[in-house]
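Worked example

This section walks through a single chain of length 492. The input is the sequence exactly as stored; nothing has been trimmed or padded.
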Amino acid sequence: MDGSTWVASLLSAALVVAHITVCVVALGVIPGGRKPSTGLAWLFLILALPAFGLLAFLLFGSTSVGRKRRAWQRQVNELVSAEIRYDPAAQTAPAGPSGGAVRLNERLGSLPLTGDNRIEVHPDYARTFAAMTEVVRSARWFVHVEFYISAWDEATSDFFDALVDAVARGVEVRFLFDHLGSRGIPGHQDMLSRLEGSGIKWAPMLPVRPLRGELRRPDLRNHRKILVVDGVVAFAGSQNLIEPGYDKPKNHKAGREWVDLMIRIEGPAVRDLAVVFATDWYAETAESIRDMLVPRTPVEIERTERAAEKVACQVVPSGPGFVTENNLRLFNTLIYGAQSRICLVSPYFVPDESLLYAVTTAAQRGVEVELFVNEGADQFMVFHAQRSYYADLLAAGVRIRLYPAPYVLHTKFFTIDDTIAVVGSSNMDYRSFALNYEVIVLLESEQVVDDLQSVLDDYRERSSDLSAEEWSRRGRGAAYVDNVMRLTAALQ
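Given that input, the structure is written out below as C-alpha cells.
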C-alpha cells in the first residue's frame, strides 16, 4: 500500500469513527431537557446529515438567552410577587370560570388577575395607530413603546411625531424594537438616524452583534407589542409598528396587507404591562425598573363610548427567559375547560402534541371548534407545516376557515364559551411557545367576547370553509412538502 492510499484509508476510517461518535453522543445528549418530538427531529437531522446537522444544532439547538437574563427574570418574578401580595386590585378580582388558569398564570408569570379594567377592541389597522397617537399626545409623565417590528414610515409618522413632541414637553419616552426583526425592513437605518436626534431613549432587543460580544441563537426574538402611557392606559395585541404592507414593494404589488387586532386597556392591568416593559428595558439597558414603576399623578384620558367595563384581566408574559412555556400551558388549560365553543385565530398554527390533543379532544367531546388561518402563505415553511395538521383537525370535527389571500390574517386571539378571551402577540406554534418573548392578556367578560365575536363575524364573511373532502384531493407532492415542513417545525 503506497503512502497516498494509506492516508486515504486512514482519513476514511477517521471519518467513520467521527460519524459514529457524533451519532452516539447525540443520542445521549440531545433528548435531554427537550420534548420527544423536538429531540427526535434533531436526531433525525444529525443522523441523516451529520456535518450539517451538527452545525445547525450548534447554531440553533439552544433556546437559552443566557444565565444572566434568566437570573434577572427570576429576580423580577420574586419582586413582582412581593409587590402584588397586598395589592387591593388583585385581592378584589372576581373569581371567574378561569380560576384554575388564573392560579397557574400567577405561579408561572407572577402577575395577578385584577378587576375593574376597561377594554376596547381595535380591529382596524389605521384607526389603531390613530388611537395610540391620540393617547401619546395626552401623555404627561412617560410613554413606553415596545414592538417587535418597527418602522418610521408614512403610516407611523404621526405616532413618532407625537413621541418627539412628548419628549419636547418633558415626557420620558422609551422605545424598544427587536434587533433582527426590524433590521430587515426597508428604511431601518433612516429610522435609527431619526431616533438619534429625537430625544427618545431607545434600544434594540436581543441584539446579535458579535463584535460587541453580543452573540446568541439568531432566531430568538422579542415578539411583544406593548404601549403604556402614564401608567393609565395601555395597548397590547398583534399589530406591529409599521404600515400594513410592511414597506415591501413586492407586498404592495401583490396587494398583500396584514390584518391585526389590538386592545386598549385602562385599569390595574396597565401596571402589569408596564412591569413587562420594564423587565425588557432593564434587560437591554440595565436601567432600574423600580423607578419606572413608581405611581404617578393620575391624568384624565378621553374615553370612547364603546368599551367593556369592569373586566377581570391577567397579563401573562412568556418566552425563553421562562422555562415553563407559560402561554402553551394556559392555552391547553383553557381549551380543556371549554364547555360549548372555542374560536381560535392564529396566523401560524403549528401545535405541539399537547395543544393538538387539546383542540381535537375538545372537538371530539362535542365542543364547537373553529380555527381561522390564512388561505395563502407569507412564510413558506410555517405555512406548509401548518397544513400538515389539517387532516387531523378536520377528522376530529374542527371547522377550518381560510382567510382569503393576498391578505395576511395576523390577528392572535381566541375565545372560550361566552366569557373568556385571550388576546396578545402569541401564535399557536413552536416558535411562540419556546423561542419568542410574548405577552398575552386573559380577559373574563361577556362583552369582550361579544366584541371579539363581532370581529369574527367579519372574518367569517370573508373566509371560505375547508372541507375534509376538498383537503383529501390535494396532490401527493403538496402533502410531501407539508410533512417535511412539519418535521422542520420541531427543530427548536
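What to look for: DSSP finds 20 helices and 20 strands in the chain.
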